[in-house]
Design brief:
By secondary structure, this protein is of the alpha/beta class. The chain has helices at about 5-20, 70-75, 115-120, 130-140, 155-170, 170-190, 215-220, 240-250, 265-270, 270-275, 285, 295-305, 305-310, 345-360, and strands spanning about 35-40, 45, 55, 65, 85, 100-105, 125, 145, 200, 225, 250-255, 280, 325. The chain starts with a helix and ends with a helix.
Amino acid sequence: MHRQVVTAVVAVTVLLASFSGVAVGQAPQVTAQSDGAVDCEYPVSATDATGAEVTVDEEPDRVVVIGPSAAQVMWEIGAQDKVVGMPVGQYTSYLEGSESKTNVVDNRLQPVREKVVGLNPDLVLAPNIVNNETVNNLRDAGLTVYRFEAATSFDDVTAKTELTGRLVGEFESAAQVSAETQATVDAVRAGVDGEERPRVYYPLGDGYTAGNNTFINDIINSAGGDNIAADVIDGYVPPISAEVVADRDPQWLVVQEGSPVPSNEAVNGSTAVRENQIVRVNGNYINQPGPRTTLVLRTLAEAFHPDAYEQIDFENVETPDPTTCGADETPDSESASANGPGFGVGVAVIAMLVAGLLAGRRS
């Protein structure tokens, strides 16, 4: 297979596997009481992307996470000791201790049913590339499975973090992480507000990039950039043409650490390449909608607007009071709804493309 196609397949696969976010348009929320607390008692119920009302009867001790970003959230909220199975490899190697967990996915980042079932988990957290049939097969084996939908913004990332904490019994730490995430995002947005917005291109390979309604687009926007693909594609498909890139003439390229700068006429002739305005970011952090996206946000904002960024006082950023547990009262609603498009056409097309190209590579 052509190297550029392989690169595109791997990049898009990672993104799809990382979409352990929440529904487009209506993010799941943990409803707070009037005193700012939620009932953290079990059972917990939430409607997932399959439309099923998923109930966790008691605090889980054994959790399997099938998506890299779901694993990141578990580590960030201090729940890593509950994880018994996860994707183990380059997309999660930055998580300390991940190598000691059981790998439960194949080379397409799809769950291996026998491995998941064999771990006897109390709860399985699944990304949106795990289709409904696979989720139902796991449920038929007696497992409790919550399937997330695609994150499209920082709001979705923080909502997913809180919901994960609620499901696994770590709500207060999850609420604290979410509050800190939001505080950082707000500080950066305010710091670069009013600055001239440079044109930004994040190439994933073979023309693929992040368009409108993606959390990566929100990262670029929040850092004070203007994503050249935002008004061209919705989501990650279809790939954009070289003519579009040339016409938009990006002033900055965002490239993953360790990856080469794309070499084609459109990119080579861009202002970004001519002026060496290329910013390197951690690929796992930018491609996985979890709390560590704020590290990418800060890197981009500092590159795009160094003077404005220098004025942001991160040491004294005001963090809103996180929601706390209030077990003595019951909120009006504990349920979290996920009414997004599910395993949509765009996601399905890329998933099939990935499967087909990987199959071809093995043959």
